[in-house]
Amino acid sequence: MKKDYSISLDIIRVLAMAGVLLVHFEQAFPMAEWIHDICSTGRYGVQAFFALSAYLACAYFMKPGASTPEYYKRRVLRILPTYYAAIVACMVYLELIEGGTPADPCHLGWLRYFLGLQLWLPSDNFTVWNNCCAMWCMSDFLFFYAVAPLVFKYVKSFKAALIFLAICMVVAILVRQGSKQLSRELFDEVRLFFRWNPLYQMQYFAVGIVTFFALRENKIRLGSIIIGILALAHFKSAMMAAGITELCILLLPSAAIQLKGKALNALRLTSKYSFHIYLTHLLALRAAGAAALLWWAENSPGFYAAKLAGALFLCVVLTCILELAQRWCNAAFRRKVRS
What we know:
By secondary structure, this protein is mostly helical. Helices cover 75% and strands 0% of the residues.
């Protein structure tokens, strides 16, 4: 298996984050139609994150002495403090500054986000209770991390990974067909709800697992052909984004990338905080837009300039707050272990 892919993975992570940022900035600011079309493809950056996360999880479980409790501990300390801090920030802004949120038909309210249930429970207000500040994907991440030890108990070879991918794709087809039927009987947004559901999105995680075993068993050519066919068969789709991500891992060794000094440090820093930025950028845009309206007329040049500057500033501030929350939780855990 090829070694030292850290730089390649960092580049992929940063590009995936940039894609997500572009699509949301494209929605928030006026752009020429051709720029709009380019930026809108960035929405598939999330599936690139899914594939990359599965690849890294697989790399952990295939190491000698890999421990399921240790895996859960690492995931909890890495993900939950940052994620929960982002939820609290959204709660404070929406409830105290914007004046509240509509009632949750499941009567869970913000608890559905803390439990990762936003993409398991439909609602009549998708943007609040299923996808507040782009946090829909956390249902998918948390589900994958929860079931990963079970998956890797059985998936331990390239062949098994292909079978797992096939199963995930069949499940995705069934979910998609079911959502089409329900959208006729209920409401159109239920189709989007099911297309973002963890059961549907598992196919993108499976692509990352196939990639890992293709490298591990030195089946790079076969793995590249299979993933390439999948990507081309799903042109301009999330599967294409996941496929291209994994092809880069298969075919682009870190040795071919020459980054040193400040460029390398900037890449690593951006990669390290990509998760924080993802969780904060939409809230920053929303709050900055509301603040800009206090001084500028909506849709004026001054409004957009103030919104952009404010969003960048707030994103940095919120990212720092999330990082402090994570460090505090990690330090508290270490103190408890020592005691």
